[in-house]
Structure formats: C-alpha cells, structure tokens
Amino acid sequence: MGEFYNPVKAIFGAGSFDRLPELIAGRSYAVVTYGEPYFAGLVDRLEQAAGKAAIVIDNVLANPDFPEVKFGCEKLAELDVLPEVYIGLGGGSAIDTAKALATSGGDWELLKEHLETEGDRADELQGPCIIAVPTTAGTGSEVSIGAVIWDHANNGKWGVRTPSAYAEYAVVDPELTLSLPRDQTISTALDAMSHALESIWTVKRNLVTQPIAAQAAREVLKYLPALSDDLGNIELRTRIANAAMLAGIALSQTRTSIAHKMSYPLTMHHGVPHGIACGFSLPMIMEWAIGHDEICDQGLADVFGEDLSAGVKRFESFMDDLGVARDPTAHGPSQADWDGWLAAAMQDEKGKTFLGKVPV
Ligand SMILES: NC(=O)c1ccc[n+]([C@@H]2O[C@H](COP(=O)([O-])OP(=O)(O)OC[C@H]3O[C@@H](n4cnc5c(N)ncnc54)[C@H](O)[C@@H]3O)[C@@H](O)[C@H]2O)c1
Ligand SMILES: [Fe+2]
C-alpha cells in the first residue's frame, strides 16, 4: 500500500517571478530574505509590481539559527496586524525561515518549544499563505513539508513539523539562480541529487516516488557537469531547478535517510555546506545500497543503467570531475569520527530507513 500527498501549487519556468503580484492578490505580505544587495534588488522589483511589503525581514544567514529566527518573530510581534502572506525569497535557509516565522505568528516561545520538543504544540501554530521562491536549485523546500532550523549553541537541528509549513505556492524561476556562483551551484545541486537518491534507498520508497526521484537524479547527472562550466546558460539552469523541485516532491513523501543523517555533524562541527555534506558520500552509499532491495535496485538502474557497479564508477567520476572530494576526512573529520557517526547513524530512526547494508 502507498500514499502520496503534496498540496503545493508550483509555477515554474523563466519569468515566473513576475507572477508573484497575482499570487499575493492585494493581500498584506512579508518578505523573508538575506541582507545582500542582489536580494534587496529583487525585493524592490517585487514591491514595484505588488505594492509595498508589510515587512521585510532580511537577516537570513545560511543554515538559519535560533537568534535570527527569534529576531524575526520579535519583528512580527511588533506589527499591529500579522501579514496574510509570507514570501521566502532565497535558498533553503530563507524559505525555511519564512516557514518558521509564518507558522510562529510572531510567538518565539511557542515556536522554540515546538522545535525543541520535536512537535509539541503543533496545533497552536498558524497556517497563513506561504509562497516559496527559491534562488538556489537544491533543497526542494519550496515543495517540502519541512523547515530546518539549527541551534548551533546547543549542537541542535530541529524541524517545524506541521502540514501548515507546506507552501501554498512554489514559484521556481531559474533566472533567479543565474547569479549563483559555481561552488554553490554544485553544492545545492548535489543536495537535490541526494534527495533523489535518498528517496530511492529508503524503506519509505514506493512505486510513485521512485520514478520522480529517478528522473530528478538523471537530470542532475546529465546537466550539472555542463552547467558547472556554463553558469549563464538558462536552459541548463532550468533543468537543474526543475530537477531540484522534482527531488523535493519525492522527498516530501519519503523524507531523507542516511546521507542526510551523516551530513549534520559535518555541517555542525566543520561548517561543510549542506549540499556537499550530504552529497560527497553518495557514491559510497550507493555501493552499500546495491543488491538488497528489488525496487531500490530498479530505481538506481533507472538512473545509472542496468550495470550498477559500472554506475558507481561513473558516479565517482562525476564527483571527481566536479572537484568534490569523496573521502570523508577531506571535509574535516577524522576517520574515527566518521566511523563513529556512521555506527551511531545506524542506530538512529533516520539511519534505519536505509535499505542497504553499511559495512560497520
Ligand atoms: N526544508 C527542506 O526540505 C530542506 C531540505 C534540504 C535542506 N534544507 C536546509 O536548507 C538550508 C540550505 O539552503 P541552500 O543550500 O539553498 O542555501 P542557503 O539558503 O543557505 O544559501 C547559501 C548561500 O547562497 C547565497 N545565495 C542564494 N541564492 C543566491 C543567488 N541566486 N545568487 C547568489 N547567491 C545566492 C546566499 O546568500 C547564502 O549565502 C540548510 O539550512 C538546510 O538544512 C531544507
Ligand atoms: Fe538536503
């Protein structure tokens, strides 16, 4: 038996940013974004077309942490009336912050308790309209239920856990990713690749998510190398933006697995960008995945061809050509740290979703 539910209306393609005024439809709106000039320019462009925002919260940093989210809640609490629409404009960090702020209704204590208890008081969270406008092509947060909030001070990483954190609209305009530098283009696309493959090698995979995930992975495999050498190519940007969205749709049903579990200490302790942290190990994990589950093997064959061992080699070359080191120690931890994390991951709920066999 399987299930599939995703309530996000997605609008995609070059120029879709210009559909925002129609989606805002005269309602009061907040914009949540980074404090960088490129994003201030996009906010100006939006305000000229849709009227002035009720509030612009532009303190988002990569991997949103408690202090920034608390600040955003306080700004919302100062308003006489909360905005009706929340626009997350940026990568996963901006979209996830927008989701957290929208559901908080400006109540930091409520949100913090929800995060730290892994779900308490979810029924008190709010459900205003969220519009996710990704400017990276990777996280799939625009179509996923989750929002990741980090607590570096306490080595914590939490999720907003309520269906109201689904965006109402995803506006996926690949033109917005044209300014993304090469390293972030690669790392965010590898995040999409990891969402696709994690959706294939998890116990939660099914015959509906599998082809979606396989299509996303094939597209990244085919088009990312060319894009990394031709960053201004809108056709290639479009392919990768759509692949990231597809991978996010698969992920919204399956959730992540072992590659993500292993990525968190790398990001937390060694500052490795999310996409590299959950992407560099994929060829290694693919090797562990092969031969343990028929549907998983078929999904991998749909991406890499029937000869899966040759597929692993091809995948290794893909990483090497992109300049992404495949050895964990190249990213900061000692081999002993990595082995310890792996052993712990296999005892964890997320790690246990992995269909393959880890050699520990
Ligand atoms: N909610 C989900 O389903 C989900 C899934 C995966 C990851 N995440 C989370 O998403 C976050 C990572 O998001 P991300 O990888 O998209 O990156 P990000 O949002 O953290 O942004 C990284 C950097 O890219 C820059 N940037 C973004 N768009 C740009 C553009 N068009 N031009 C130039 N610079 C640009 C930003 O200024 C920032 O410095 C992490 O917190 C991760 O845990 C969430
Ligand atoms: Fe991810």
Explained architecture:
With 360 residues, this protein is an alpha/beta fold. It folds into 2 domains: 9-175, Rossmann fold (3-Layer(aba) Sandwich); 182-353, Dehydroquinate synthase-like - alpha domain (Dehydroquinate synthase-like, alpha domain). Helix content is 50%, strand content 11%. The chain has helices at residues 20-24, 37-50, 66-77, 92-104, 108-116, 182-200, 209-228, 234-254, 258-270, 274-279, 282-289, 294-304, 308-322, 335-347, and strands at 9-12, 29-34, 55-60, 85-90, 129-134, 148-151, 156-159, 169-172. A 6-stranded parallel sheet has the order 1-8-5-4-2-3, sandwiched between helices. Strands 6-7 form a two-stranded antiparallel sheet. The radius of gyration is 20 Å and the shape is globular. Nicotinamide-adenine-dinucleotide is lined by residues 34, 36, 38, 62-63, 90-94, 96, 135-136, 138-141, 144, 146-148, 176-177, 179-180, 184, 188, 191, 274-275.
Mean pLDDT: 97
Question: How many domains is the backbone divided into?
Answer: 2
Tell me the CATH topology of the largest domain: Dehydroquinate synthase-like, alpha domain
Radius of gyration: 20 Å
In what range is the share of β-strand residues? 5-15%
Biggest β-sheet strands, sense, barrel: 6 strands, parallel
Structural class call reads alpha/beta
Quickly count the helices: 14
Strand order of the largest sheet: 1-8-5-4-2-3
Q: What is the helix/strand order?
A: EHEHEHEHHEEEEHHHHHHHHH
What ligands are attached or bound here?
A: nicotinamide-adenine-dinucleotide, fe (ii) ion
Structure summary, number of beta strands: 8
Q: Categorize the overall geometry.
A: globular
Helical residue percent band: 40-55%
CATH architecture of the largest domain, please?
A: Up-down Bundle
